[in-house]
Structures are given as C-alpha cells and as structure tokens.
Amino acid sequence: RHCIAVKINYELMPLRTQLRNGDHVEILTSANASPNAAWLNFVVSGKARSHIRNYLRNTRVEEAAALGERLLNHAIAALNPEAVEPDPAVWDRVVKDYGMKTREELYASIGLGGKLPLVVAHQLLHVQGEKTGEPAHPHAISIRGTEGIAVELAQCCHPIPGDPVLGFIHKDRGLIIHTHDCPSIRAFRTDPDKWLDVEWEAEPGHMFDVSIKVVVGNQRGVLAKVAGAIAEHGSNIGNVAMEEEDGSPYTVLFFTVQVENRMHLARVMRGLRVLPDVVRIFRIKGKKDGRAAQTQ
User: Fold this and answer.
1) ∠ CA 35-39-44 to the nearest 5 degrees?
2) How far is CA 248 from each of CA 47, 215, 216, 218, 245, rounded to the nearest angstrom?
3) What is the pLDDT of residues 230-263, one digit of tens each?
C-alpha cells in the first residue's frame, strides 16, 4: 500500500505541507496507489528519496519491457504473420548476441528506444529459420509502416509507389526503401540477410518527391511553360534548378516534383513531352559514376 493523501490535525492537506511540533498526522493509503516523481521535490530524508527513485526506475523498466514486447510482436507479425513463437534456444542466442542476460532486458531496451523492433524481429526469424529450414519472412511487408517499425525512403533513388522496391535493414535507421535498380543496392548485396521483400500499401493523397531532368530549347518563357504543365497535372514543384552551356541551343531544367505514385509521374512526364520546346525528359534515380542515373 502507498500514500495517497495526508490529514494534518484532522484536515486534508497537501503532501508537501511542512509539519510542526505537536501536529497530529494521519496517512491515507491505497493498494492501487504508487509513488509519484513529484514527491522528489519535497521529501526530506535520503532514505525516502532513495526508495522513491528505486521504485520509479524499476517501474519505468517494467513499463518499457511491456511496450518493447508489444512492439517486437508487432514487428514479427509484419515480417511473417504465420511465424510461431521462437524456440527458447533461439531466444537465448539472440539475447546473447545483443550482450544481454534475459529476454526482459531485451524487451526493455526496445521499449526505451535502444533497439529497433524490426531489426530484433528479423534476427529472431532468421535464427529460427536456420533451425527449421523455413524462410524467415516469406511474405512481403507493407512499406507504409507499422507501430515500432521506422521506415525511410532512400534519398539516393527517391522510390515512389509503383516502383519495384527492396527494404534494407539498417541497425540505427530502421527499414530503408530502395528501388530495384538503385545503384546503391550493389554496395549492400554482399549482405543479403539484411534485405527484405517489401510492397507498397495504398495511401491516397500522400505525395512523394521525385527528381526529373527536362532538356528544352532555348526559348523565352520555356521555364514558365514547363512549370505550368507540371501544375496542370496535379503535381507541386519542390525545387527547380537550371543549367545552360554557352553556345548550346538547349537548356537543362532539374525539378523536384511531388507525385502520388508512378502512374501520376507518368502523366506528368507525358504532359511535358507534348510541349513543343521539350526535347527530352528523364527521371533521375541515384548516382552512377558521378552522374545522375536516368530513366526516360
């Protein structure tokens, strides 16, 4: 039982009230009450302060462990809905790999933000798959993201819904989404266990950044015409840059545009191709040999 209120001289008073000699004190308690962090602002004895701090520390760890367990179970279900509870031997190995002693310690680390649940779930399923011979995560997971799973769209290739994509598990940043043809993927192919099959989940109205390169003739007002065509097809312009070469009859325009998906981007690009001043148009994806990798 813990304190919930105090009566001083038969009257309810704030817990922080300073006592005087001769005061009659009655402590009201409840089995459902618990120490409050605010008490540390007015308790006097070091013993009381120590007990309150220990209780709060243990409670925080317990709550973090409960949260971490929920997040981990959610991540496991996202990776493999048919997954069974990992064997105790699997748990022992994974807990040891993280330098911890108990499963609860690992749960608490997840709940406190020290470990990403998706990464731990991936390792559990991978070790379980080694024992059973079954695939760790046979189903693609949704990109839109679920509780406890950090999802980031790679800035090197700017994937958008409709692009074939893969997810790379980064130990600090979570799941990073790349297009299948992103040049950056080749650098990570030596570690296939960190790649996941992922698929897009429809999210109407959400806009994604994508970079395009438009080669146009050197005509007055061409930038305004191109920008107007982009806007006509329901796309916003996030950034624009221009390159001109002396003596060249062409100007290169670089746009960052916002689209809902790959089909929306295709409509924007078709709208630009019909402009008489547009010579060529590319989508820019990643970097290759110091130049932008392009798709027409």
Assistant:
1) 120
2) 82, 11, 11, 8, 5
3) 999 999 998 999 998 777 899 999 999 999 999 9
Q: How many domains in the chain?
A: 4
User: 3-state class of 1 per DSSP?
Assistant: coil
135/125 Cα distance (integer angstroms): 8
pTM (predicted TM-score): 0.57
Among residues 82, 108, 132, the one where a domain terminates is: 132
Rounded Cα–Cα distance for residues 70 and 33 (Å) = 25
Question: 284 to each of 60, 117, 257, how far by Cα in Å?
Answer: 47, 33, 11
Give CA–CA dist 213/253, Å, rounded. 6
- What does the alpha-carbon distance between residue 152 and residue 175 come to, in Å, rounded to a whole number? 6
The reply to whether 41 falls in a domain is no
Whether 212 and 290 map to the same domain: the answer is yes
**Within the chain, which residues score under 70 in pLDDT?**
37, 133-150, 171-172, 187-193, 202-204, 286-296
Widest pairwise Cα distance in the chain? 99
pLDDT computed for residue 279 by the predictor = 95
- Pull the structure tokens for residue 145: 């993201």
Among 273, 279, 282, smallest CA distance to 229 is for 273
Query: What domain range is 260 assigned to?
Result: 208-295
* Other beta carbons less than 10 A from residue 93's beta carbon: 18
d(CA 162, CA 179): 10
Residue recorded with tokens 């074939």: 164
> Are 106 and 164 within 8 A, CB to CB?
no
- Is residue 40, in this structure, part of any structural domain at all? no
- Which pLDDT tens digit goes with each residue over 114-137? 777 877 888 888 888 877 766 555
